[in-house]
Fold this protein.
Amino acid sequence: MSDETIAARIERLVDEEQQLRDREQTDRSDPDALEEEAERLRAVEVELDQCWDLLRQRRALRDAGADPNQAHARDADTVERYQQ
């Protein structure tokens, strides 16, 4: 997967995240819709973290003179437990 492909995926996920957050404001009276959207929002946030992590790995490998294709997507537990 290329940097451009990952960046495009990030853009799509950011757009979806914004749409979900906007709908969250308008669906306040429908608890089922809110719960479903909250679950999807969490999944989008995790996938975004995974994409950013993969992109950072690829850039670091490239900067170190290594093959960026050696980067791999890490599982959700790993990327969600990073210290910021």
